[in-house]
Structure formats: C-alpha cells, structure tokens
C-alpha cells in the first residue's frame, strides 16, 4: 500500500501553523482545545494530513485560536516576515474541554412575619427562594407583585390568567391571583429557623 505523502505547499503551510502555535506558547492540545478539537486533530493540520488547510474559513478558525490572522500565516509561509503574535490580541476564544460547572444559583431570602403559612412556616422562619424557578403543586413560593409586594404562599396550580395559591390567613384558605398583577413567581427551596 502506498504511503500518503502530503503536498510540499501543504507541508509549508502546516509548518507555518506550527510556528505560530509555538510562538504563542501553546501545545497542540491547548491550541486544539480552543476549538474543541483534539491534539491529534490539530497535529493533522500541522503535518499536512488533514484536508482543508488552504480554505480561508479553516485558516481563519485555526489562526484565530492562536490570536493571529491568516495574513500572519501567509507571511510565514512566504518567508517574507516573521510576524509578532500579540498574546493580548483578541482572537477566537473557547471554553475548551474543561467543565466550569453549572452557573451559580441566585438565592433570595424572605423572613415570614405572620402566621399566614402556619404550620408550614411559622413567624420568624426564613424562606430561601430561587427567582424564576417555577414551583410544583404544594411547594412554597414567593410571588413578587408588580407593585413590589412580596407574598409567601403555597403554590396550588396555574391557569392561563390566574394563579391558585394557599396561605392567606390560614393554610387551608385558597387565593386566586390575577397573573397580570404578578411580576415573578419563585419556588421556595429551603426553610430556615432564624
């Protein structure tokens, strides 16, 4: 079986790409991770064994990961100039393959001031709630009204134009709230004694 021999021009282009990467101080794995690519995938471009290295969109993507330009790559191939790669330049950025974890959860607090939710939450209990997390049936919620009023309740159900909740004056008393007057509803995720 004949062995694959890359075109000499593709080899020069791959070598110039490798030179740009080394000047940036990156390994093949680090450069590839900026594009969600493996080090082997990046290495195939540098060795001239991956097709497409002459395509402008591929060159922009690869040189962008190195905070460089296709023009800098062309200058290296031609030998006309040795371009300076600015580490502070803004190029293509990627999160790479690392996992940053979930975004931080915003939690707000509200102290119960009356016995409207008794025995579920006595006066003095602090409700922790997560804004815009929709509550399940029977779960505590904090309803932020458009007038700025905060109403801790137990969520029952929702209809197109109304919320059905419990806890006004007594836990078994139902209340219907017009959704037009509600700014936000948030699920209670914890109750703490103060």
From TrEMBL:
<dbReference type="InterPro" id="IPR001387">
    <property type="entry name" value="Cro/C1-type_HTH"/>
</dbReference>
<feature type="domain" description="HTH cro/C1-type">
    <location>
        <begin position="17"/>
        <end position="73"/>
    </location>
</feature>
<protein>
    <recommendedName>
        <fullName>HTH cro/C1-type domain-containing protein</fullName>
    </recommendedName>
</protein>
<dbReference type="GO" id="GO:0003677">
    <property type="term" value="F:DNA binding"/>
</dbReference>
<dbReference type="InterPro" id="IPR010982">
    <property type="entry name" value="Lambda_DNA-bd_dom_sf"/>
</dbReference>
<dbReference type="Pfam" id="PF13560">
    <property type="entry name" value="HTH_31"/>
</dbReference>
């Amino acid at each position: 079986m004949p062995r694959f021999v890359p075109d000499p021009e593709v080899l020069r282009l791959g070598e110039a790409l490798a030179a740009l990467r080394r000047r940036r101080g990156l390994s093949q794995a680090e450069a590839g991770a900026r594009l969600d690519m493996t080090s082997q995938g990046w290495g195939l471009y540098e060795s001239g064994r991956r097709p497409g290295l002459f395509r402008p969109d591929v060159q922009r993507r690869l040189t962008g990961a190195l905070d460089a330009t296709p023009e800098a790559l062309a200058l290296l191939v031609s030998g006309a100039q040795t371009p300076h790669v600015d580490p502070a330049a803004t190029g293509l950025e990627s999160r790479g393959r690392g996992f940053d974890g979930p975004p931080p959860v915003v939690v707000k607090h509200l102290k119960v001031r009356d016995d409207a939710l008794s025995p579920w939450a006595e006066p003095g209990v602090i409700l922790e709630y997560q804004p815009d997390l929709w509550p399940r049936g029977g779960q505590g919620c904090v309803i932020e009204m458009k007038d700025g009023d905060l109403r801790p309740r137990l969520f029952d159900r929702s209809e197109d134009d109304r919320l059905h909740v419990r806890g006004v004056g007594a836990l078994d008393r139902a209340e219907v709230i017009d959704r037009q007057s509600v700014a936000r509803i948030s699920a209670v995720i914890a109750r703490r004694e103060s």
